[in-house]
Predict the structure.
Amino acid sequence: MAKLPLALKYTSFYKQLPTEWHGYFNTCTVSEKPEALKMLATIILKEHDFSRITEALTLVSEQVHPYIESIKQVFYQLINGWGGSFGNTPKIP
């Protein structure tokens, strides 16, 4: 799938993804799709389900365009218990 990212929509894997990921794959660039698929494969192989990585995608999407590195960083913060400050950015006067 990572080699043919444009064919992703037609796979059974895509149909099993949470809706948030459908939205992400519809808006991300062609070069981001293989990176995202590799990231998902790595996370799933490490025996994590889609709940935490989808939560990370949602949190990042609220702040900025969800780049793969941002999603990974927030995901690892969530699973390691470091993520309590999302959405609490200080206001600049």
Observations:
- The chain has a mean pLDDT of 82.
